[in-house]
Amino acid sequence: MILDAQPDIEVVGQAADGRRAVELARRLRPDVCLFDIRMPGLDGIEATRRLAGPDVADPLAVVVITTFDLDEYVYAALRAGARGFLLKNAGSELLSQAVHAAARGDALIAPSVTARLLGAFAHAGPASPSARPAEPLTAREEEILAAVARGRTNGEIADELHISLSTVKSHIASLMTKLDARNRVEIAMWAYETNRVRS
Fold first, then answer.
1. Exposure of 193 by Cβ count < 10 A (0-12 exposed, 13-18 middle, 19+ buried)?
2. With respect to CATH, is domain 18-124 assigned 3.30.365.10?
3. Under 8 Å CB-to-CB from 157, ≥6 apart: which residues?
4. How far apart are CA 179 and CA 83, in angstroms?
5. Average pLDDT, the chain
6. pTM reported for the whole predicted model
7. What's the whole-number mean pLDDT along residues 9-25?
8. CATH of domain 139-193
9. What integer pLDDT is reported at residue 140 of this predicted model?
10. Can the keyword DNA-binding be found in this entry's annotation (predicted)?
11. Where does CATH 1.10.10.10 sit in the chain?
């Protein structure tokens, strides 16, 4: 109902359980899937893994929402490939922003969990599968890596480092290649897991 009320968002499918949600998503190929952590039949984390996980050839963008502000849920959802994580009390504006961010290939995580998210989960979660980048990072890439890990937008990074937006995008694309990361969340998680950045 909230999303349908947005003029630039169209809800193309709804499902009563996780299995049906995965089937519908595979058939409809929406720009973004919105899953609850707790769904009958198949929970939101497993549904996310099936549509956006590391082994999925053509992953879909997934945003996970929950009433449960628990560290293990956030960590598991992001590990499964989610591009966003929100609490149900986030409000319509933040929900809309998360859907738009996911559609653009960006990530949006509820502000209430962002502060502790990456640092805490990186130390509690499994070690990064790739502790060393494919190629060494340049000094500028290290700066951008740290900024991404702290949740800065491309525009904020450009302003902070006095470089153009296209240069930021180019460096982020390079980081994704070197780190074998599929999105900004994975870049940030790698930064914390390898102790490049501390919370």
1. buried
2. no
3. 144, 147, 148, 163, 168
4. 17
5. 83
6. 0.64
7. 94
8. 1.10.10.10
9. 95
10. yes
11. 139-193
